[in-house]
Amino acid sequence: MPDPSPSLSALSALLAEQGTALAASLGSPVIPPAYLDLVRCAQDVDVLAGQVLTLCVQRCRDAGHTWQEIGDLLGVTRQAAFQRFGKTIDPRTGDPMDKTVHMADAAERAIQVVTDVLEGRMAEARRSFNAEVLAAFTDEVRGTSLASVAGLVGTFEGLGEQAPFVRRIGDHTVVDIPLRYEAGGMKARVAFDADEKVAGIFFLTPETP
Q1: DSSP at 63
Q2: CB 97 within 8 A of CB 88
Q3: Sequential DSSP letters for 11-36
Q4: d(CA 165, CA 174)
Q5: Contact 47/177 with Cβ under 8 angstroms?
Q6: pTM for this structure?
Q7: Count of beta carbons in the 10 Å neighbourhood of residue 45
């Protein structure tokens, strides 16, 4: 039976070539590598690996496997797996939805907003809020939210070790930021609207989809 997706074979072969090039870039114990070239090569491998993974997930779905199975394999929820790899149709137009993240600094901006909120710098945080969040996220709401989190997991200790998870959901760019507390983990979720203003900020348990 012919391969229904030759691009997967081509990408896999290219990934193997890039992996070999990366290994060669490491140099020898005597001659240190050119580290900028090493980073550049590693980035190429990372991009190709992501493309190969996406095609493999699509094949997996075509073969009848569920998002739950795929999520379990990748160590994420089925919803997170779908958000990353699924093909979403916009019910307003019937067209595939754009899942491209256009905010290059979304993770950095979300971390800054969450840090400002946690440390009480609300004047700075509110500069990023849209009109709805500016009206709704009062000092009282902030205090109540943080008190609820403290009641669950104690004192805030810092950002989690994992990198923020950035994705496009509908018209919003959404960032999940792992947080460390004395008695467990939480995550902050920041949603940016089309104008790159904060359209929502939430403190959630790690297992929340």
Answers
A1: T
A2: yes
A3: HHHHHHHHHHHHHHHT--SSS---HH
A4: 8
A5: no
A6: 0.68
A7: 17
Side-chain half-sphere exposure of 195, counting CA atoms within 13 A:
7
Distance CA 189, CA 180 (A): 14
- DSSP SS3 for 191: strand
H-assigned helices in the chain: 6-25, 35-62, 67-74, 78-85, 106-118, 122-126, 131-136, 139-153
Tokens describing residue 165 = 């998870």
The amino acid at 176 = D
CB atoms within 10 A of CB 175: 25
Contacts of residue 4, defined as CB under 8 A and 6 or more positions apart, other chains included, come to none
Contacts of 119-122 with C-beta under 8 Å, sequence gap 24+, read none
List pLDDT tens digits, range 115-157.
999 999 999 999 999 999 999 999 999 999 999 999 999 999 9
